[in-house]
User: Fold these one by one.
Assistant:
Number 1:
Amino acid sequence: EPEVTQTPSHQVTQMGQEVILRCVPISNHLYFYWYRQILGQKVEFLVSFYNNEISEKSEIFDDQFSVERPDGSNFTLKIRSTKLEDSAMYFCASSPDRRNEKLFFGSGTQLSVL
Amino acid sequence: GENVEQHPSTLSVQEGDSAVIKCTYSDSASNYFPWYKQELGKGPQLIIDIRSNVGEKKDQRIAVTLNKTAKHFSLHITETQPEDSAVYFCAPNTGGFKTIFGAGTRLFVKA
Protein backbone atom coordinates (compact mmCIF):
# COMPACT_ATOMS: atom_id res chain seq x y z
CA GLU A 1 0.00 0.00 0.00
CA PRO A 2 1.41 3.44 -0.89
CA GLU A 3 2.44 5.60 2.02
CA VAL A 4 3.77 9.03 2.89
CA THR A 5 7.37 8.84 4.07
CA GLN A 6 9.09 11.41 6.26
CA THR A 7 12.74 11.88 7.12
CA PRO A 8 14.34 12.16 9.55
CA SER A 9 12.18 10.55 12.24
CA HIS A 10 13.96 12.64 14.89
CA GLN A 11 15.79 15.94 14.57
CA VAL A 12 17.60 17.73 17.35
CA THR A 13 18.80 21.26 16.72
CA GLN A 14 20.04 24.32 18.53
CA MET A 15 17.85 27.40 18.82
CA GLY A 16 18.45 29.73 15.89
CA GLN A 17 19.53 26.98 13.51
CA GLU A 18 17.79 26.15 10.26
CA VAL A 19 16.11 22.78 9.80
CA ILE A 20 14.62 21.10 6.77
CA LEU A 21 12.04 18.39 7.21
CA ARG A 22 11.54 16.13 4.23
CA CYS A 23 8.53 14.28 2.94
CA VAL A 24 7.73 12.08 -0.02
CA PRO A 25 3.96 12.20 -0.57
CA ILE A 26 2.03 9.47 -2.35
CA SER A 27 2.94 9.74 -6.00
CA ASN A 28 -0.41 10.47 -7.66
CA HIS A 29 -1.72 12.78 -4.97
CA LEU A 30 -2.38 16.41 -5.80
CA TYR A 31 -2.64 18.16 -2.42
CA PHE A 32 0.07 18.40 0.20
CA TYR A 33 0.03 19.59 3.79
CA TRP A 34 2.13 20.12 6.86
CA TYR A 35 0.67 19.78 10.34
CA ARG A 36 2.28 19.81 13.74
CA GLN A 37 1.39 18.33 17.09
CA ILE A 38 2.84 19.35 20.40
CA LEU A 39 3.01 16.36 22.75
CA GLY A 40 -0.44 15.32 23.90
CA GLN A 41 -2.19 18.15 22.11
CA LYS A 42 -4.29 18.57 19.00
CA VAL A 43 -3.11 18.33 15.42
CA GLU A 44 -2.55 21.88 14.15
CA PHE A 45 -2.70 22.96 10.52
CA LEU A 46 0.37 24.76 9.18
CA VAL A 47 0.10 24.98 5.41
CA SER A 48 -1.48 23.46 2.34
CA PHE A 49 0.13 23.29 -1.09
CA TYR A 50 -1.42 22.71 -4.49
CA ASN A 51 -0.32 23.25 -8.06
CA ASN A 52 3.14 24.29 -6.91
CA GLU A 53 2.02 27.06 -4.63
CA ILE A 54 0.77 27.64 -1.11
CA SER A 55 -3.04 27.44 -1.00
CA GLU A 56 -3.52 28.42 2.62
CA LYS A 57 -1.43 28.90 5.73
CA SER A 58 -2.17 29.31 9.39
CA GLU A 59 -1.05 32.07 11.73
CA ILE A 60 1.66 29.68 12.98
CA PHE A 61 3.24 29.63 9.51
CA ASP A 62 5.09 32.94 9.73
CA ASP A 63 8.06 34.23 7.76
CA GLN A 64 10.37 31.70 9.44
CA PHE A 65 8.59 28.86 7.66
CA SER A 66 8.69 27.95 4.00
CA VAL A 67 7.70 24.98 1.87
CA GLU A 68 9.02 23.69 -1.38
CA ARG A 69 8.36 20.95 -3.87
CA PRO A 70 11.72 21.00 -5.63
CA ASP A 71 11.08 18.03 -7.89
CA GLY A 72 8.21 15.71 -8.68
CA SER A 73 8.44 13.72 -5.47
CA ASN A 74 9.80 15.63 -2.48
CA PHE A 75 7.92 18.14 -0.33
CA THR A 76 9.96 20.01 2.27
CA LEU A 77 9.29 22.24 5.25
CA LYS A 78 12.04 24.65 6.21
CA ILE A 79 12.24 26.52 9.49
CA ARG A 80 14.80 29.25 9.03
CA SER A 81 15.65 30.14 12.63
CA THR A 82 14.23 27.66 15.09
CA LYS A 83 12.75 28.68 18.42
CA LEU A 84 12.17 26.58 21.53
CA GLU A 85 8.43 26.65 20.89
CA ASP A 86 8.94 25.01 17.48
CA SER A 87 9.59 21.74 19.29
CA ALA A 88 6.83 19.40 18.15
CA MET A 89 6.01 16.42 15.96
CA TYR A 90 5.66 17.57 12.36
CA PHE A 91 3.43 15.57 10.06
CA CYS A 92 3.34 15.69 6.32
CA ALA A 93 0.13 14.62 4.59
CA SER A 94 -1.19 14.29 1.07
CA SER A 95 -4.62 13.78 -0.42
CA PRO A 96 -5.57 12.42 -3.83
CA ASP A 97 -8.06 14.55 -5.68
CA ARG A 98 -10.21 16.67 -3.38
CA ARG A 99 -8.66 19.23 -1.11
CA ASN A 100 -8.65 18.26 2.54
CA GLU A 101 -10.38 14.94 1.96
CA LYS A 102 -8.92 11.53 2.73
CA LEU A 103 -5.63 12.79 4.11
CA PHE A 104 -2.79 10.27 4.28
CA PHE A 105 -0.29 11.14 6.99
CA GLY A 106 3.35 10.20 7.36
CA SER A 107 4.77 8.94 10.65
CA GLY A 108 6.15 12.35 11.51
CA THR A 109 9.42 14.03 12.39
CA GLN A 110 9.98 14.77 16.06
CA LEU A 111 11.75 18.12 16.21
CA SER A 112 13.50 19.07 19.43
CA VAL A 113 14.92 22.58 19.70
CA LEU A 114 17.43 23.03 22.52
CA GLY B 1 -13.50 30.22 11.45
CA GLU B 2 -14.59 26.70 12.25
CA ASN B 3 -14.94 25.81 15.92
CA VAL B 4 -14.68 22.06 16.57
CA GLU B 5 -15.36 20.35 19.88
CA GLN B 6 -15.07 16.69 20.78
CA HIS B 7 -16.62 14.87 23.69
CA PRO B 8 -15.59 13.11 25.78
CA SER B 9 -11.88 13.91 26.00
CA THR B 10 -11.23 10.51 27.55
CA LEU B 11 -13.29 7.35 27.31
CA SER B 12 -12.64 4.06 29.03
CA VAL B 13 -14.67 0.98 28.09
CA GLN B 14 -14.55 -2.73 28.74
CA GLU B 15 -13.57 -4.97 25.84
CA GLY B 16 -16.67 -5.91 23.90
CA ASP B 17 -18.60 -2.80 24.88
CA SER B 18 -19.51 0.02 22.50
CA ALA B 19 -17.87 3.44 22.37
CA VAL B 20 -19.36 6.67 21.05
CA ILE B 21 -17.48 9.90 20.44
CA LYS B 22 -19.25 13.10 19.44
CA CYS B 23 -17.94 16.00 17.38
CA THR B 24 -19.70 19.36 17.28
CA TYR B 25 -18.83 21.97 14.65
CA SER B 26 -19.86 25.54 14.05
CA ASP B 27 -19.60 26.12 10.29
CA SER B 28 -22.87 25.18 8.61
CA ALA B 29 -21.01 25.04 5.28
CA SER B 30 -19.12 21.92 6.41
CA ASN B 31 -19.79 19.10 3.99
CA TYR B 32 -17.15 16.47 4.73
CA PHE B 33 -16.91 14.67 8.06
CA PRO B 34 -13.98 12.32 8.69
CA TRP B 35 -12.67 10.49 11.73
CA TYR B 36 -8.96 9.81 12.17
CA LYS B 37 -7.31 7.33 14.53
CA GLN B 38 -3.86 8.04 15.93
CA GLU B 39 -1.89 5.29 17.58
CA LEU B 40 1.12 6.00 19.75
CA GLY B 41 4.09 7.24 17.74
CA LYS B 42 2.20 7.33 14.44
CA GLY B 43 0.44 9.84 12.25
CA PRO B 44 -3.36 10.05 12.14
CA GLN B 45 -5.05 7.51 9.91
CA LEU B 46 -8.43 7.98 8.26
CA ILE B 47 -10.83 5.30 9.46
CA ILE B 48 -14.19 6.48 8.17
CA ASP B 49 -15.72 9.53 6.52
CA ILE B 50 -19.11 10.76 5.42
CA ARG B 51 -20.48 13.51 3.21
CA SER B 52 -23.31 15.86 4.03
CA ASN B 53 -25.79 14.14 1.74
CA VAL B 54 -25.58 10.92 3.76
CA GLY B 55 -26.85 10.45 7.29
CA GLU B 56 -24.96 7.31 8.27
CA LYS B 57 -22.14 5.10 7.04
CA LYS B 58 -20.92 1.81 8.43
CA ASP B 59 -17.72 -0.16 7.91
CA GLN B 60 -17.63 -3.39 9.90
CA ARG B 61 -17.41 -2.40 13.58
CA ILE B 62 -17.24 1.34 13.04
CA ALA B 63 -19.94 3.74 11.93
CA VAL B 64 -20.39 7.48 11.58
CA THR B 65 -23.70 9.30 11.97
CA LEU B 66 -24.37 12.88 10.95
CA ASN B 67 -26.92 15.38 12.23
CA LYS B 68 -26.52 18.44 10.01
CA THR B 69 -29.33 20.33 11.69
CA ALA B 70 -27.69 20.09 15.09
CA LYS B 71 -24.19 20.36 13.56
CA HIS B 72 -22.68 17.29 15.07
CA PHE B 73 -21.47 13.88 13.96
CA SER B 74 -20.50 10.83 15.95
CA LEU B 75 -18.14 7.89 15.74
CA HIS B 76 -19.54 4.56 16.92
CA ILE B 77 -17.31 1.58 17.62
CA THR B 78 -19.02 -1.68 18.50
CA GLU B 79 -17.51 -4.80 20.08
CA THR B 80 -14.42 -2.84 21.09
CA GLN B 81 -11.06 -4.59 21.16
CA PRO B 82 -7.78 -3.63 22.86
CA GLU B 83 -6.35 -2.57 19.48
CA ASP B 84 -9.04 0.11 19.28
CA SER B 85 -7.19 1.93 22.07
CA ALA B 86 -5.92 5.16 20.48
CA VAL B 87 -6.69 8.85 20.14
CA TYR B 88 -9.53 9.68 17.77
CA PHE B 89 -9.86 13.03 16.00
CA CYS B 90 -12.72 14.51 14.03
CA ALA B 91 -11.91 17.03 11.28
CA PRO B 92 -15.03 18.54 9.65
CA ASN B 93 -14.31 20.48 6.49
CA THR B 94 -16.06 22.89 4.17
CA GLY B 95 -14.00 21.92 1.15
CA GLY B 96 -11.48 24.66 1.80
CA PHE B 97 -7.73 24.27 1.98
CA LYS B 98 -7.57 24.26 5.76
CA THR B 99 -8.78 21.51 8.10
CA ILE B 100 -9.31 22.10 11.80
CA PHE B 101 -8.94 18.99 13.93
CA GLY B 102 -10.83 18.46 17.14
CA ALA B 103 -8.85 18.20 20.37
CA GLY B 104 -9.03 14.40 20.30
CA THR B 105 -10.60 11.66 22.40
CA ARG B 106 -8.36 9.17 24.12
CA LEU B 107 -10.05 5.77 24.08
CA PHE B 108 -8.92 3.04 26.46
CA VAL B 109 -10.28 -0.46 25.92
CA LYS B 110 -9.72 -2.63 28.96
CA ALA B 111 -9.21 -6.33 28.37
Note: Chain A has a mean pLDDT of 94.
Number 2:
Amino acid sequence: GDSVTQMEGPVTLSEEAFLTINCTYTATGYPSLFWYVQYPGEGLQLLLKATKADDKGSNKGFEATYRKETTSFHLEKGSVQVSDSAVYFCALSDNDYKLSFGAGTTVTVRA
Amino acid sequence: KAGVTQTPRYLIKTRGQQVTLSCSPISGHRSVSWYQQTPGQGLQFLFEYFSETQRNKGNFPGRFSGRQFSNSRSEMNVSTLELGDSALYLCASSLGRGRAVNEQFFGPGTRLTVL
Protein backbone atom coordinates (compact mmCIF):
# COMPACT_ATOMS: atom_id res chain seq x y z
CA GLY A 1 0.00 0.00 0.00
CA ASP A 2 0.89 3.67 -0.10
CA SER A 3 3.34 4.96 2.49
CA VAL A 4 5.40 8.01 3.32
CA THR A 5 8.72 8.08 5.15
CA GLN A 6 10.10 11.33 6.44
CA MET A 7 13.20 12.12 8.41
CA GLU A 8 12.82 11.82 12.13
CA GLY A 9 13.23 14.83 14.31
CA PRO A 10 13.43 16.76 16.29
CA VAL A 11 15.35 19.28 14.24
CA THR A 12 16.75 22.34 15.99
CA LEU A 13 18.10 25.26 14.00
CA SER A 14 19.23 28.82 14.50
CA GLU A 15 17.35 31.65 12.85
CA GLU A 16 18.37 32.22 9.20
CA ALA A 17 19.71 28.66 8.87
CA PHE A 18 18.84 26.40 5.92
CA LEU A 19 16.17 23.77 6.52
CA THR A 20 15.75 20.46 4.71
CA ILE A 21 13.28 17.76 5.67
CA ASN A 22 13.58 14.58 3.64
CA CYS A 23 10.49 12.75 2.44
CA THR A 24 10.25 9.61 0.30
CA TYR A 25 7.14 7.74 -0.72
CA THR A 26 5.84 4.43 -2.01
CA ALA A 27 2.75 4.40 -4.19
CA THR A 28 1.26 2.17 -6.84
CA GLY A 29 -0.01 4.95 -9.06
CA TYR A 30 0.86 8.57 -9.70
CA PRO A 31 0.12 10.32 -6.43
CA SER A 32 -0.24 13.96 -5.56
CA LEU A 33 2.23 15.06 -2.89
CA PHE A 34 1.75 17.56 -0.10
CA TRP A 35 3.46 19.21 2.82
CA TYR A 36 1.31 20.20 5.78
CA VAL A 37 2.35 22.18 8.85
CA GLN A 38 0.85 21.95 12.33
CA TYR A 39 1.37 24.64 14.94
CA PRO A 40 0.82 23.84 18.62
CA GLY A 41 -2.84 23.33 19.47
CA GLU A 42 -4.00 23.70 15.89
CA GLY A 43 -5.07 21.58 12.96
CA LEU A 44 -3.02 21.02 9.81
CA GLN A 45 -2.40 23.77 7.28
CA LEU A 46 -1.60 22.98 3.67
CA LEU A 47 1.85 24.40 3.03
CA LEU A 48 2.43 23.34 -0.58
CA LYS A 49 1.59 20.67 -3.11
CA ALA A 50 2.70 19.06 -6.36
CA THR A 51 0.50 16.93 -8.57
CA LYS A 52 2.91 15.48 -11.14
CA ALA A 53 6.55 14.64 -11.68
CA ASP A 54 8.97 17.60 -11.75
CA ASP A 55 6.35 19.99 -10.37
CA LYS A 56 7.73 22.38 -7.79
CA GLY A 57 5.45 23.51 -5.01
CA SER A 58 6.28 26.71 -3.16
CA ASN A 59 4.78 28.87 -0.44
CA LYS A 60 6.06 31.25 2.26
CA GLY A 61 9.68 30.61 1.22
CA PHE A 62 9.31 26.82 1.38
CA GLU A 63 9.86 24.69 -1.71
CA ALA A 64 9.61 21.03 -2.65
CA THR A 65 10.07 19.27 -6.00
CA TYR A 66 8.25 16.09 -7.00
CA ARG A 67 11.02 13.67 -8.03
CA LYS A 68 9.53 10.52 -9.53
CA GLU A 69 12.89 8.90 -10.25
CA THR A 70 13.87 9.03 -6.57
CA THR A 71 10.27 8.93 -5.22
CA SER A 72 11.06 11.97 -3.11
CA PHE A 73 9.50 15.29 -2.14
CA HIS A 74 12.01 17.00 0.15
CA LEU A 75 11.02 20.25 1.84
CA GLU A 76 13.50 23.16 1.86
CA LYS A 77 13.65 26.71 3.12
CA GLY A 78 16.66 28.94 2.69
CA SER A 79 16.36 31.05 5.83
CA VAL A 80 14.13 29.95 8.69
CA GLN A 81 12.50 32.17 11.28
CA VAL A 82 11.36 31.48 14.84
CA SER A 83 7.79 31.52 13.51
CA ASP A 84 8.60 28.43 11.38
CA SER A 85 8.78 26.31 14.53
CA ALA A 86 6.12 23.63 14.03
CA VAL A 87 5.56 20.01 13.08
CA TYR A 88 5.81 19.30 9.34
CA PHE A 89 4.04 16.39 7.66
CA CYS A 90 4.68 14.98 4.23
CA ALA A 91 1.61 13.33 2.67
CA LEU A 92 0.44 11.67 -0.50
CA SER A 93 -2.89 10.98 -2.11
CA ASP A 94 -3.21 8.31 -4.77
CA ASN A 95 -6.67 9.24 -6.06
CA ASP A 96 -8.33 7.14 -3.38
CA TYR A 97 -9.86 10.09 -1.55
CA LYS A 98 -7.51 9.88 1.42
CA LEU A 99 -4.18 11.27 2.54
CA SER A 100 -1.39 9.01 3.79
CA PHE A 101 0.93 10.88 6.13
CA GLY A 102 4.50 10.55 7.28
CA ALA A 103 5.25 10.50 11.00
CA GLY A 104 5.93 14.22 11.16
CA THR A 105 9.10 16.18 11.86
CA THR A 106 9.28 18.65 14.73
CA VAL A 107 11.27 21.74 13.86
CA THR A 108 12.42 24.25 16.48
CA VAL A 109 14.06 27.49 15.41
CA ARG A 110 16.04 29.40 18.04
CA ALA A 111 16.53 33.16 17.93
CA LYS B 1 -14.42 32.28 3.26
CA ALA B 2 -14.86 30.56 6.58
CA GLY B 3 -12.65 27.56 7.20
CA VAL B 4 -13.52 24.10 8.41
CA THR B 5 -15.21 24.20 11.79
CA GLN B 6 -15.36 21.37 14.30
CA THR B 7 -17.43 21.08 17.43
CA PRO B 8 -16.85 20.57 20.22
CA ARG B 9 -13.18 21.46 20.53
CA TYR B 10 -12.68 19.41 23.69
CA LEU B 11 -14.48 16.41 25.13
CA ILE B 12 -13.96 14.26 28.17
CA LYS B 13 -15.76 10.94 28.31
CA THR B 14 -15.50 7.73 30.29
CA ARG B 15 -14.94 4.22 29.00
CA GLY B 16 -18.03 2.61 27.56
CA GLN B 17 -19.73 5.88 26.62
CA GLN B 18 -20.33 7.03 23.10
CA VAL B 19 -19.48 10.34 21.47
CA THR B 20 -20.51 12.32 18.40
CA LEU B 21 -18.23 14.86 16.75
CA SER B 22 -19.37 17.39 14.20
CA CYS B 23 -17.68 19.00 11.21
CA SER B 24 -18.81 21.79 8.90
CA PRO B 25 -16.80 22.00 5.67
CA ILE B 26 -15.73 25.05 3.73
CA SER B 27 -18.63 26.45 1.75
CA GLY B 28 -18.83 24.72 -1.62
CA HIS B 29 -16.82 21.70 -0.53
CA ARG B 30 -18.69 18.43 -0.88
CA SER B 31 -16.10 16.03 0.51
CA VAL B 32 -15.40 15.53 4.20
CA SER B 33 -12.68 13.27 5.58
CA TRP B 34 -11.88 12.29 9.15
CA TYR B 35 -8.49 11.47 10.65
CA GLN B 36 -7.32 10.34 14.07
CA GLN B 37 -4.07 11.78 15.40
CA THR B 38 -2.24 10.15 18.31
CA PRO B 39 1.38 10.38 19.47
CA GLY B 40 1.91 6.67 18.92
CA GLN B 41 0.16 6.06 15.59
CA GLY B 42 0.39 9.50 14.02
CA LEU B 43 -2.28 10.56 11.54
CA GLN B 44 -4.58 7.79 10.45
CA PHE B 45 -7.43 7.98 7.95
CA LEU B 46 -10.88 7.05 9.25
CA PHE B 47 -13.30 7.65 6.35
CA GLU B 48 -14.31 10.01 3.57
CA TYR B 49 -17.73 11.12 2.42
CA PHE B 50 -18.84 12.83 -0.76
CA SER B 51 -22.45 13.80 -1.41
CA GLU B 52 -23.60 11.68 1.53
CA THR B 53 -21.81 8.55 0.25
CA GLN B 54 -18.81 6.95 1.92
CA ARG B 55 -16.15 6.52 -0.76
CA ASN B 56 -13.30 5.17 1.35
CA LYS B 57 -12.79 3.79 4.82
CA GLY B 58 -9.68 3.22 6.90
CA ASN B 59 -8.77 0.27 9.03
CA PHE B 60 -10.75 1.05 12.19
CA PRO B 61 -13.22 -1.13 14.10
CA GLY B 62 -16.94 -0.83 13.51
CA ARG B 63 -17.28 1.27 16.66
CA PHE B 64 -16.19 4.17 14.49
CA SER B 65 -18.86 5.38 12.12
CA GLY B 66 -19.75 8.50 10.25
CA ARG B 67 -22.29 10.13 8.04
CA GLN B 68 -22.73 13.15 5.87
CA PHE B 69 -25.80 15.30 5.47
CA SER B 70 -27.23 16.92 2.36
CA ASN B 71 -25.60 20.24 3.31
CA SER B 72 -22.20 18.46 3.38
CA ARG B 73 -21.87 18.71 7.16
CA SER B 74 -20.56 15.51 8.67
CA GLU B 75 -20.63 13.72 11.98
CA MET B 76 -18.56 10.87 13.29
CA ASN B 77 -19.59 8.63 16.13
CA VAL B 78 -17.53 6.42 18.38
CA SER B 79 -19.42 3.91 20.48
CA THR B 80 -18.24 1.97 23.52
CA LEU B 81 -15.27 4.23 24.06
CA GLU B 82 -11.92 2.74 25.02
CA LEU B 83 -8.93 4.45 26.62
CA GLY B 84 -7.06 4.10 23.32
CA ASP B 85 -9.62 6.27 21.56
CA SER B 86 -8.15 9.33 23.26
CA ALA B 87 -6.86 11.41 20.38
CA LEU B 88 -7.19 14.54 18.32
CA TYR B 89 -9.86 13.97 15.68
CA LEU B 90 -9.35 16.06 12.60
CA CYS B 91 -11.86 16.81 9.91
CA ALA B 92 -10.82 17.92 6.44
CA SER B 93 -12.85 19.18 3.51
CA SER B 94 -12.19 19.35 -0.19
CA LEU B 95 -14.03 19.95 -3.43
CA GLY B 96 -14.00 16.20 -3.82
CA ARG B 97 -13.72 16.09 -7.57
CA GLY B 98 -11.70 17.41 -10.46
CA ARG B 99 -8.05 18.36 -10.28
CA ALA B 100 -8.33 19.51 -6.68
CA VAL B 101 -9.87 16.24 -5.55
CA ASN B 102 -6.98 15.47 -3.23
CA GLU B 103 -6.41 18.96 -1.79
CA GLN B 104 -7.77 18.82 1.73
CA PHE B 105 -8.21 21.66 4.21
CA PHE B 106 -8.27 20.82 7.90
CA GLY B 107 -10.22 22.06 10.86
CA PRO B 108 -8.73 22.70 14.31
CA GLY B 109 -9.73 19.29 15.58
CA THR B 110 -11.66 17.88 18.52
CA ARG B 111 -9.53 16.73 21.43
CA LEU B 112 -11.19 13.62 22.93
CA THR B 113 -10.03 12.33 26.29
CA VAL B 114 -11.35 8.98 27.51
CA LEU B 115 -11.01 8.32 31.24
Note: The mean pLDDT of chain A is 94.
